[in-house]
Amino acid sequence: MNRTRLPHADTAKGLMIIMIVFGHFIERLLDWNATPKMPLLSLMYLIHIPTFVFLSGCFFTPRHWQHKIKRLALLYVLFQLLYTVCNRVTPPAFNFTIIPI
């Protein structure tokens, strides 16, 4: 089956992914409870995840979904194990901490 991609949908999903990364970065860097940043973070979290899920659901095709879920679950477990091992092995000075401003 020959499928064509919609550039606008791909761009919108890409922007939502960038917003996710940026939101996590700002949250860690500036602290979630910092009063001036809270409205910005709240707005970002209100918009980017639901929009990404909606756009992904619009273009979902049910082919090979069991294989995809198994592959994603395996990757999740592997990366979670890697994160846990690295977090336990590295000294506390190398662990990521919130920078007070």
UniProtKB/TrEMBL annotation:
Pfam families: Acyl_transf_3 (PF01757)
One of the record's GO molecular function terms: acyltransferase activity, transferring groups other than amino-acyl groups
Top-level lineage group: Bacteria
Keyword vocabulary terms for this entry: Acyltransferase, Membrane, Transferase, Transmembrane, Transmembrane helix
All copies of domain Acyltransferase, residue ranges: 10-89
Entry's transmembrane regions: 12-30, 42-60, 72-90
Name this protein carries in UniProt: Acyltransferase family protein
